[in-house]
Predict the 3D structure of the following.
Amino acid sequence: MKSAQEMDIPGLVLIYGESFLVKQTFKIMSCFILEKDKQKFALEILEGGMVSMGDIIEQVSTFSFLVSKKVVAVKNIPLFQTQKNSTDISFSSSDLDRLMDFIVKGIPKNHYLILTTSLVDKRKKIYKTIADKGLIIDCSVAQGARKADQDEQNAVLQTIADKILSTSEKTIDNQAFKTLVDLTGFNLGILSQNLEKLIAYSGKAKIISTADVKAVVKRDKKDPIFYLTNAVMAKDIKNALFYLNSLFNEGFHPLQILKSFENLIRKLILVKCFTQKVSKNNKMSLKKMNFNSFKQSVLPKVIHYDEQIKISMEDRDQYLSNEDLKKNANKANDLFLAPNPKNAYPVFQTFQKSENFSLNELNQALIFLGDLDYKLKSSSIDAKTQIENFIIKICRKGGFEHDTEKY
């Protein structure tokens, strides 16, 4: 808000991104525009999906006899996406044209329209119109698993924590903060609530400890499924079983989890076949290879391999019907070793972790998963126990065992 204090805030504001940050930004913005005691009369909050475009424009255009300033806020406005529920109101192209005409003509003086949403499409005309005539505040945070994304998330978590703790003149030690993040994940709302609990629990102590966190905070973190597959690739039985249990508690279907394992094993088989073909008699020492060496010596060969696969698929597609092409469209990327070569680090990690398995071991694991898939679909077996059994087999030393044979 520092920059906003140096100029007049325009009558139109769009706030988008992470929900907690959007709420906090809206709160600051509305308090800045209106005096706190006048918000009751001057602030009108509407729910996107429940209000028509005509009602929004009418609310902004209507003058009040009680206050000189007026703010109309539309939360979760569906400007850039369709509504999920059939009962929700969505905006047609004519609705958006009407809003753009209203914006261009100008919002009445001392009247403010604040829009909030989770996602935007910067290519759309409505976004460009708002950017031209109003103020856009980006509260988005990277949601990926790349190191840069994780660093951005941690920086946001640390900033929010510091702000909350500063009001009580407390701090949290590094290990305690790491434990807190491990328990809550990237959920700023839950992080905020847990910090308030920790402030109260720690009493007169100025530093919140790991013991405080473990005593107060319950695990609310939702684990992405790739945490499970990463643990399996690392042959980390303890964490693999932990993440499996977490996913089941979150309501994941067993076949979803099974499919992720099938995709993983197929990818590892592709990698093993590729490395055997490329290295021939000279075995690649991927475990000892650093990332830069991988990019220089291995990645170009991977990209060339993917290009050859693409050419083969294009030749095949000439003989397929349109219906067959649609069926195979989603399978195409599964054959590539590096679908996104610009993001090479995950490819490097997969190649390194492939060294934990033999090709025979992976082949037997895929057969096991195929058998388990059939059993899950045709009988009432305990899915969790069977998947746990797979994890123990694939992660243990000595090779994967299927039936009575050992590989």
User: Anything to note?
Assistant: The chain has three domains: 2-139, 147-216, 227-406. The chain has 18 helices and nine strands.
